[in-house]
Amino acid sequence: MTGWTVASWAGVAAEHPFGLRTLPYGVFTDAARPRPRIGVAVGEAILDLTAASAALLPEHAALLRGGNLDALLAAGRRSWTAIRAALTHWLTDELHSEVLAPLLVPSTDATMLLPFTVADYVDFYSCEQHATDIGRILRPGQPALPANWRHLPVGYHGRAGTVVVSGTPVSRPSGQRRLPDGTVTFGPSTALDFEAEVGFVVGTPSAAGRPVPLTDLAEHVFGVCLVNDWSARDIQAWEYVPLGPLLGKSFATSISPWVVPLDALGAARIQPPVRDPHPLPYLDDTGTEPWGLDITLEVALNDQLISRPPLRGMYWTAAQQLAHLTVNGARLRTGDLFASGTVSGAAPDERGSLLELSWNGTAPLTLADGSTRSFLADGDEVSITATAPGPEGTIVGLGEVRGRISPSYTVTADRVHDSCPSGRRETYD
Q: Which residues, at least 6 apart from 370, have a Cβ–Cβ distance to it below 8 Å?
């Protein structure tokens, strides 16, 4: 085998985003076998890893037959490395094709499921360009960044129970809003937004009371996924002082169905930006292996490309986010998910939210059909994809996270009225 560009008997091209240097993990079903299985994307197909491991990797088969990635995540770095090496060997050695070829399922025949049980969810606010844009939009004439922003990775604790897999419809949330005249009202959000982000999936847990040093990211984080942290800007604006987002964020967070192993991103690692002021010791990554990541996201609204946010400029890295997340002694659990925060670049077509792209509605975005958007309309569909450089000039794909906005539920004193076409009604207590 001469490096990662070697051809596979499975027919996947070396330049395919889901080629042999990517090998992302997910959970799927198909019509022939409706029981959830762990799969690995191989080009346009999915290898049934649950079945393959039973035949070829019995020592690790127990980690791969539970219907989700939870046991694999908990197994730790040694198992992650061994299974990835086995996969690469199987797919490049034609001796294994007789066993594995029948286990390749066309991806178009598969239904993808939430890949792991989300234990906790934390969303950071670590892109300087995004934070600066938000400050200029919402606090004109004042400092764009909060006083603490360059000293620590700002974040909030989200709601794990509303993390959903790509393709799940997103109901427009309702909540309290303050109108320009000062009236406080209740109703569906009129400023629904997307946020283009990268998520990090924790495998190995940590002990309570023991902070995780920033040099140990790879010992705890299994891989990355794409995140759309949907936001109701009007609900958020009224509720977030003084304790931060609640209903404006907690209604839905969408993730891609594929988790790309951290090992696949070795060629994408770059030096992060220079920090000023110099970080405190537990966040000081001077002289350590860099954890900046050269990932480019693409955002499409109703299948029209509207933005290409670059993660490479992220001020705080995932290693620093993890160190800060645990420095008070908070423990990690298998399945914890933490997200980068909205990714935005300096150019107008690199902004990672509609709040920025439309500058809070003062410069609405014009779509190809002539319609305009300040924020999302019912029926709009947002798709986020991403790629990173791989070894030997190839690329690593991170897949896609997609979600369509459906109408909101309306709430009266004693009822929740479903405005969706099914006409279902539910009691509200």
A: none
What beta strand segments (E) does 189-347 contain?
A: 192-193, 196-202, 221-228, 231-232, 253-255, 260-261, 269-270, 292-293, 296-301, 304-307, 337-339
Q: With CA atoms as reference, report the closest residue to 331 among 218, 158, 208, 214.
A: 208
- For residues 186-216, one letter each, b for 16 or more C-beta atoms within 10 angstroms of the residue's C-beta and e for the rest, the string is eebbebbbbbbbbbbbbbbbbeeeebbebeb
For the stretch 77-101, pLDDT in tens is 999 999 999 999 999 999 999 999 9
Residue 380 has phi, psi (to 5 degrees) of -65, 145
In a domain? residue 11: no
Rg over CA atoms, the chain: 22
- 423 torsion bin: left (phi>0), alpha (psi -120 to 50), beta (else): left
Same-domain pairing of 135 and 152: yes
| CA nearest to 306, candidates 270, 341, 352 | 352
Q: Where a domain ends, among 65, 80, 113?
A: 113
Residue 282: CA atoms inside 13 Å, Cβ hemisphere, count?
Answer: 16
Query: Do 276 and 367 lie in a common domain?
Result: yes
Tokens of 225: 């996924």
Counting residues of the chain whose pLDDT is more than 70, the rounded percentage is 94
pTM above 0.90, yes or no: yes
Query: Mind telling me the catalytic residues?
Result: 130
Task: Please measure the distance between the N-terminal and C-terminal CA atoms of the chain and give it in whole angstroms.
Answer: 63
| 11: three-class secondary structure by DSSP | coil
Residue 414 burial (CB count, 10 A): 8
Could you tell me if 206 and 283 lie in one domain?
A: yes
Which residues constitute the domain of residue 135? 121-427
Task: Name residues whose C-beta falls within 8 Å of residue 275's C-beta, 6 or more positions apart in sequence.
Answer: 150, 315
Instruction: Please give the structure tokens belonging to residue 353.
Output: 């939210």
Half-sphere exposure of 311 (CA within 13 A, CB side): 30
Q: Residue 302, SS3?
A: coil
198 and 237 fall within a common domain: yes
How many structural domains are present in the chain?
Answer: 2
